[in-house]
Design a protein that fits this description.
alpha+beta, 5-stranded mixed sheet, 32% helix, 101 residues
Amino acid sequence: MVRTTQRAAAPERLDHAMDIARGITAAVGTERIELVTLTRDRICLQPTTLDDGEQIAHTIGCDLPIDHRMFVPGHTLWTGDIDGLEVQVRSALRASVGSEL
């Protein structure tokens, strides 16, 4: 007995997220990614070096930054959508808007 179509599709959604994560890591280089966390709806990547995070994010199309200045250490989380999944890439904290370069 199948409970619902939604529950039956859940494993396929997880497989889809895993396939997208494999594609991302292959595109940017597996040596550049330290940790991948995924659910059926989102993928979060932690680069081996946080300073590479912004470049990795832009490479895969994640261009919406969320700055977390209150955390220690602070960091920026770059977000975007890839094939229906929310994708997040952690990076070093960006400079404040208006700060000197």
